[in-house]
Fold this sequence. Notes:
The chain is mostly helical. The longest helix has 52 residues, at 18-69. It has a domain at 38-64. The chain is built from two helices and no strands. It has helices at 11-14, 18-69. The radius of gyration is 28 Å and the shape is rod-shaped. 76% of the residues lie in helices and 0% in strands. The termini are far apart. 0% of the residues are buried.
Amino acid sequence: MVMASNTGCTEDTMTVQPDEGVSRARQNLEDTEDRLVTLSEQITLCTRVSNDLKDLSDILVRKSLQNVSLPLRK
């Protein structure tokens, strides 16, 4: 059994039947596509939350400025 340089793969694991290799590559591609879809959905959700937080922050700043500009009541 011969080790491939810096890959940790053995010669035995490097010999894959063409059909098996294509099938494995196709599955890896599908898995990657699924992960990308999930990541995209999570990024979209994070963007929405970030925008909502910015809007809320703007509202709170305006409210705070209004309170500062009001005269003190006695």
